[in-house]
Amino acid sequence: MSSRATNLHNSPAPPAVPTAEVSVVPLHAPFTPTTSSSSIHSAAGSIHRVPPEVLMEIFQIYVENGDTPCRLACVCVAWTKIAFRTACLWRHIYITDELVEGIYDVSSWSIPGYDEALWALDRKQVCNTRIQVEQAIERARSTPLDVEICAIRESDLHQQEMLFHVFGQSNVSSRISRLAIIHLPYGAGAFTQPSILPNLEQFVWQEPHDAWVPLMGRLLSQSPKLLSVEVSYAVLSSLSDFDIWSNIRSLIVNYSYTATSDSDIAALDTVIPRCRSLESFKVDAYEIWPKQSTSPTTCRRLLSLALNCDIEHLHLIQAATLTWLDITEPEKDGYSEPCINNDMRFPQLETLLVESMDPSWIYKLELPRLRSLSINLIRNDYLNEQIYQ
Question: Residue 168's pLDDT is what?
C-alpha cells in the first residue's frame, strides 16, 4: 500500500454535520405571540429616542408622498409638537366652499390640544372659512405655499374673503410657489388690483371664467419665476396672447370639460413657438396636434414630448435634443402607410412609446441612441391580418 493510501486511511473522520431540528405545528394550533409586552414597550421607547431632526426629515418624506400630516400629529403628544414645529408639512392648502367629510376623500382629524378638528384632503389642509385659511398659512410660517382653489357656488361672500386673504395681501401672495385653480365659476369681484405672485413657479388652471382671464393673465405676466404650466385647451386659448410663455420649461395641455373648439387647438400654433425654453411638452387629451396646417416649429431645448397626432405631421415639431417621445396615432377607418419626412430625425432619442395601427414606420427612422421601445397596437384585427398573410 502506498504512503498516500496509508495517509488517507489514517486521516481523521470528517466532523459530523449537525442535524436540523424540525418542530411540527398542528395546522389548527392557536396563535401564540412570540413578542412579550416588555419588548413592545422597549420598541416604543426606542422610537421616542429618535432625534427630532431625524423625525422631521421622515415626516417630510411621508407628507410629500401624499398623506396628511394630521395623521402624524395624532400619534402622540411628542409627535404632535414635532409635526407642528415642521412648517413645511403644512404648506399645501386647499380652499373650497364645500366641506363635507367623505366627499372627495376629505377627512376630519381631532388632534390632541386642538379644540377644533382639522380637515385634510390627501396632504392638503382643507379650508372653507377665512379663519381656517389664516390658521393654515400661519402653520406653514415662512415656507413656500402650494395653494389649490375649488369653488362650487356661483357667489359667496366667505369665498371672496378667503381669496382676498390669498391674493390681496402681499405677505401671503409672495409666498405662493404653486397655484392650482380647479374650479372658479364666479367673477373676479374686488380683485381688480391683486398683489403680484413674484415667486410663483407652477400654475394649474382647468376651467377659465371670462372675468378671471385678464386678471390671471396680468398676474402670470408679472411672475418671472414661472416655469411650469398645466392648463386645459380652453385656458390655453384664453391666455395665448399674454406674455407668459418665453421662460416656460414644462407645458401640459389637458382636456376641457367643455367642448374644445378648433380655435382652442389652434392656440398651440401660437403658444409653442413662443416657448423658447421649453423642455417638456405633453398633450394629455384626444385632440390631434400638430396638423397639416401647423407651421414648422423648432424647439431647441425640448427633451420630452407626448402627442396625439398623425406620424407624417410629427416632423413639424423639430427637436434634435429630444430624448423621450410618446406618440399616439388616431384611429382611422382605412389605413395607409404614413409618409416619413426626411426632416424627421431624432439623433438623441433614447425612449420611444408608440400607439399605432401599424408601427412599421419605426424602422424607417434613424434612432442611433434608442434604448427603450414600447409598442401598443390600436387594432388587433390589423395585427392578425398581417400575421396570417
Answer: 76
- Can you read off the three cell numbers belonging to residue 300? 431647441
Extended strands (E) in the chain = 92-96, 106-109, 118-121, 124-127, 145-150, 176-183, 202-205, 228-232, 250-254, 280-284, 297-298, 304-308, 317-318, 324-328, 351-356, 372-377
The Cα–Cα gap between 307 and 293 comes to 16
Per the structure block, which three cell numbers stand in for 315? 416632423
Are 345 and 321 contacting, i.e. CB atoms less than 8 angstroms apart? Answer: no
CA separation for the pair 176, 203 (Å, rounded): 10
Q: Give CA–CA dist 93/147, Å, rounded.
A: 5
User: What local confidence, expressed as pLDDT, does residue 349 receive?
Assistant: 95
Neighbours of 360 (CB within 10 A): 10
What does the alpha-carbon distance between residue 125 and residue 48 come to, in Å, rounded to a whole number? 27
d(CA 71, CA 92): 15
Q: How far apart are CA 306 and CA 328, in angstroms?
A: 8
Taking the CB of residue 265, how many other CB atoms lie within 10 A of it?
A: 21
Look at residues 236, 238, 239, 237 and name the one whose alpha carbon lies nearest to residue 220: 239
Q: Which residues of the chain have pLDDT under 70?
A: 1-46, 99-104, 152-159, 185-194, 257-259, 332-339, 341-343, 378-389
Q: What is the largest CA-CA distance in the chain?
A: 112
- CB of 174 within 8 A of CB of 198? yes
Length of the chain, please?
A: 389
Instruction: Give this prediction's pTM.
Output: 0.80
SS3 9: helix
Distances (CA, A) of 260 to 235, 263, 362: 11, 8, 31
